[in-house]
Amino acid sequence: MQVNGFAYGLNNYYHTISSNDDKRNLENQQDEQKQDSNQNNEQTQMVNGVALDSKELQVLRELQDTDRNVKAHEAAHQAAGGGLTGPASFSYTRGPDNQMYAIAGEVPIRVQKGNTPEETIAIARQIIAAAMAPSDPSPQDYKVAANATKMEIEARAEAVKMKAEEADANNDKETKTSETDENNNTNEEYKSSIADVYKRNSMPESNPILSIAS
User: Distances from the Cα of 122 to the Cαs of 15, 106, 137, 142, in angstroms?
Assistant: First the structure.
């Protein structure tokens, strides 16, 4: 009995220890859960009526930054492009707060030649300025600027050609004018000489006056 009693007591003792350990473990787990819950509550934030955890808040911040950058990028295009640019259009995605955020955008720009090479050069320069206006030009922006640069180079070459042709035309005109003047001078001299000859031939000969001495 004593042995049994001892054995029982020993078993009961271990069981009690075991039970206390389980309870302590359970209490520890509950404390940890409470701590995790408190941490989650501290990290959760209401945004536009939606509770967001830390990861969602990080995603939201990134979307907000992207939205600002995209809209600023397109606004820079429009400001520099003036009348050559059209309204901006954007691609949106829904954020964790159920709001829409711009993640990409574009602004149309009219690429056309002017009535003169000088007008074309001015248009090309404005297109280049519009394409490179943002602080972070995209590959498409560089492509537009390159095409406008090519247009400007072609317009400059055309302007040089037109000036050369105009200079040649002026030289031809001056040469013809000079030849005409020379011909006119020659004709005038010829007419003058003919008139002199005619005048000399048409004058009557005067009779000599004789004096007789007495």
Answer: 94, 23, 21, 18
Cβ pair 89, 106 in contact under 8 A:
yes
| Cα distance between residue 113 and residue 55, in whole Å | 51
Question: Which residues have a Cβ under 8 Å from the Cβ of 79 and sit 6 or more positions away?
Answer: 133
At residue 195, the pLDDT reads: 67
Q: For the segment 98-151, what is each residue's pLDDT rounded down to a tens digit?
A: 999 999 999 999 998 999 999 999 999 999 999 999 999 999 999 999 999 999
Q: What is this structure's pTM?
A: 0.58
Which residue in this structure is represented by tokens 């940890």? 32
Cα 13 from Cα 11, distance rounded (Å): 5
CA distance 51 to 40: 11
Calculate the CA 148 to chain-centre distance.
Answer: 10
Distance set, CA 183 to CA 7, 29, 135, 175, 176 (Å) = 150, 120, 68, 12, 10
3-state secondary structure of 45: strand
Q: How far is CA 196 from the centre of its chain?
A: 79
Cα separation, 146 vs 96, whole angstroms = 39
CB atoms within 10 A of CB 172: 10
Which two three-digit tokens encode residue 185? 């001078």
What's the sign of the alpha-carbon dihedral 152, 153, 159, 163?
positive
Phi, psi of 47 (to 5 degrees): -130, 120
